[in-house]
């Protein structure tokens, strides 16, 4: 178990280092830099050279990368050229916003998707499971890009909910929490609805397989009430393949959050990354990518650990695979 | 009709619309009409105001408020539709003064319906080319890894693992953004297709590798080898054809993802440049002010088109043979 943990940890470190380094180098190699993007074509050659020197863009790529990496090891990720603030101060608040959004979507999807999946997975016929199944297929065909456009459209049309941003400037401090929650509804639903549909389908499939297992029949034959068999025994067994999906969902969540953040103007990592990329703000690009990779690493590690605890075979098989390789 | 049939019909309709765009679309993709900015759809009617029946006709839009871009139907004169005239399926008899706008006009006064059809060519074409590229690259990498095994296999599979764990949208965004921001439409097409293919290939490679590995141990592969088939022949002629079912399923999964990826990139302004019509750029045009959607909902029609195509592909996949999907563990 310790070895398994160490391996996962090593992978996480490599992931964060590789992703942030790669994005730093890519952004540095990209045609145009922050100075040319921000000053435009009017600037004189001297101004450009001076500004380049100010931001340290006049060094060779290798030297620049070496300096940045050495500083990054001491947790100094440079100063954003776009905002004029240290990347280390800028990223956490944006990352927290993205995490809040992703978490809200995940909680919503789990709370809605799993119970409905149990319902549709254990009942064959009837209008309710059929309706749920149909709704799931429709929602699965609506990636976050489409759900957020649709929800923004509905919100703008009805005026029920704020459509953009995270806070309204008019709200008093007492209602700040309510205001935030109101702003959260549209983006969280936009991300959560397709996810809920995916979870519902998965849970239904896994449940319908488990219901056919001999132990369910045995429990029923012994007179255990049907409800108890389904929601205790069968659900527990059926949760395993679903739990394995959660780790993979972090990547999907991050990908989906990009479109949602841009459309609903949610001030998260995604919109920051877009700004940084367009302005060629290399330190900020590397910082955003590193933060995203960290999310990914934490997510996959948590789900791997949870899976290893629920199902010892998970870490066992990876060890066997290692031995066989 | 089975769900699968409905799905196939939706997909076929989209492909048909894309192929026949110059004939079905009443206008060119970039024809502008300054007097009809954000004009609502002109609904074809058969009953006139006075209750009399006619062949399908439309009413002309008359601008009521320049500021709010509000229009009113000019009910004084019917504008009949002309079928099969000037190489178009249907258009207004008086196209200059009262054009047929089945899905309204955008903020430049361009016909949304025509742009939707021409946009389908770019959006669907890009997704198809990218899926083809992903299939070729994935089959090559997966076939090589599965056939050779050993360190090559290890290396290739580690690489695919790494790509698969990354959030694809961000990788596509970063790769697109670090390349020159201003490119010609064909360059953008090739570039996006290459990026999407690279991101999709690992998913195909993993499955192909697993299938090739398990098929290799079967008698027919041994027989072919005994008869003197070389590595490439064995792979190309015997082992890769076994992955057909799996690849077909994967393509139906990748194409919707690529359509949405193009739309997302174009939406944020990193896709096709103005005035190219793709479903993403059409949304981008409308998204300058998000409130625009509420007032001019027909600008959302590319989103609806995207939904229908993705839904169609999902329905086709619904009861698709699952055989290929069984191969997900390392054999």
What are its keywords?
heterodimer; A: 325 residues; mainly alpha; 79% helix; B: 331 residues; alpha+beta; four-stranded antiparallel sheet; 4 strands; 56% helix; 11% strand; elongated; disordered C terminus
In words, what does this structure look like?
- The complex is a heterodimer of chains A (325) and B (331).
- Helix content of chain A is 79%, strand content 0%.
- With 325 residues, chain A is an all-alpha fold.
- In chain A, α5 (87-122) packs antiparallel against α6 and α6 (127-140) crosses α8 (176-211).
- The two termini of chain A are 19 Å apart.
- The mean pLDDT of chain A is 82.
- Chain B has 331 residues and is an alpha+beta fold.
- In chain B, strands 1-2-3-4 form a four-stranded antiparallel β-sheet.
- In chain B, β1 (45-47) and β2 (53-65) form a beta hairpin.
- In chain B, α1 (3-19) packs across α12 (301-318), α3 (112-148) runs antiparallel to α4 (150-165) and α5 packs across α6.
- Chain B is elongated and about 85 Å long.
- Chain A binds chain B through residues 15, 18-19, 23, 26-27, 29-32, 137-138, 140-143, 145-146, 149-150, 152-153, 156-157, 163-164, 251-252, 254-256, 258-259, 262-263, 265, 270, 273-274, 277-278, 285, 289, 292, 296, 300, 321, 325, and chain B through 3, 154, 162, 165-170, 173-175, 177-181, 256, 260, 263-264, 267-268, 283, 287, 290-291, 293-294, 297, 300, 303, 306-307, 310-311, 314-315, 318, 330.
């Amino acid at each position: 178990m310790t070895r398994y943990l160490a391996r996962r940890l090593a992978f996480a470190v490599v992931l964060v280092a590789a992703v942030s380094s790669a994005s730093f180098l890519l952004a540095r190699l990209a045609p145009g830099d922050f100075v040319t993007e921000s000053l435009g074509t009017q600037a004189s050659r001297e101004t450009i050279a001076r500004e380049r020197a100010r931001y340290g863009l006049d060094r060779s790529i290798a030297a620049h990368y070496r300096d940045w990496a050495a500083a990054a090891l001491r947790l100094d990720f440079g100063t954003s050229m776009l905002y004029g603030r240290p990347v280390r101060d800028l990223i956490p608040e944006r990352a927290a916003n993205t995490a809040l959004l992703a978490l809200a979507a995940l909680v919503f999807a789990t709370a809605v998707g799993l119970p409905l999946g149990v319902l549709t997975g254990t009942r064959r016929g009837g209008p309710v499971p059929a309706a749920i199944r149909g709704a799931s297929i429709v929602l699965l065909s609506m990636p976050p890009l489409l759900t957020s456009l649709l929800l923004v459209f509905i919100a703008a049309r009805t005026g029920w909910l704020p459509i953009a941003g995270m806070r309204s400037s008019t709200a008093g401090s007492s209602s700040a929490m309510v205001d935030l929650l109101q702003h959260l509804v549209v983006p969280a639903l936009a991300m959560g609805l397709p996810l809920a549909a995916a979870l519902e389908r998965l849970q239904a499939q896994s449940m319908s397989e488990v219901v056919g297992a001999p132990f369910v029949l045995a429990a029923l034959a012994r007179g255990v009430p049907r409800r108890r068999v389904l929601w205790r025994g069968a659900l527990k067994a059926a949760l395993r393949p679903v739990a394995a999906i959660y780790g993979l969902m972090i990547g999907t969540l991050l990908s989906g959050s990009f479109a949602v953040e841009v459309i609903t103007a949610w001030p998260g990592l995604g919109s920051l990354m877009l700004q940084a990329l367009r302005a060629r703000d290399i330190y900020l690009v590397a910082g955003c990518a590193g933060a995203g990779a960290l999310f990914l690493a934490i997510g996959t590690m948590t789900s791997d650990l949870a899976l290893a605890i629920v199902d010892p075979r998970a870490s066992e098989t990876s060890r066997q695979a290692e031995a066989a390789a | 009709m089975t769900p699968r049939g409905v799905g196939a019909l939706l997909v076929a309709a989209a492909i048909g619309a894309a192929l026949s765009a110059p004939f079905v679309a009443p206008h060119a993709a970039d024809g502008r009409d300054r007097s009809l900015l954000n004009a609502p759809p002109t609904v074809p009617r058969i009953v006139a105001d006075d209750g009399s029946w006619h062949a399908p006709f439309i009413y002309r839009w008359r601008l009521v408020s320049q500021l709010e871009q509000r229009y009113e139907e000019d009910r004084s004169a019917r504008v009949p539709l002309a079928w099969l005239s000037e190489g178009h399926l249907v258009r207004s008899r008086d196209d200059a003064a009262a054009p047929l706008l089945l899905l309204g006009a955008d903020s430049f006064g361009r016909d949304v319906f025509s742009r939707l059809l021409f946009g389908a060519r770019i959006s669907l074409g890009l997704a198809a080319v990218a899926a083809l590229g992903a299939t070729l690259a994935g089959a090559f990498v997966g076939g090589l890894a599965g056939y050779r095994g050993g360190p090559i296999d290890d290396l290739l599979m580690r690489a695919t693992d790494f790509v698969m764990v990354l959030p694809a949208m961000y990788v596509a965004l970063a790769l697109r953004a670090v390349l020159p921001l201003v490119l010609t439409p064909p360059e953008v097409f090739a570039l996006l297709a290459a990026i999407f293919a690279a991101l999709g290939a690992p998913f195909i490679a993993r499955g192909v590798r697993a299938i090739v590995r398990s098929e290799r141990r079967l008698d027919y592969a041994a027989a072919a080898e005994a008869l003197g088939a070389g590595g490439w022949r064995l792979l190309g002629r015997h082992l890769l054809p076994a992955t057909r079912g799996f690849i077909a399923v994967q393509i139906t999964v990748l194409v919707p993802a690529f359509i949405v990826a193009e739309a997302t990139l174009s939406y944020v302004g990193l896709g096709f440049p103005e005035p190219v019509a793709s479903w993403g750029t059409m949304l981008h045009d409308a998204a300058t002010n998000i409130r625009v959607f509420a007032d001019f909902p027909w600008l959302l029609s590319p989103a609806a088109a995207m939904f229908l195509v993705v839904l169609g592909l999902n329905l086709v996949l619904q009861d698709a043979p699952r055989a290929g999907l069984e191969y997900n563990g390392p054999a």
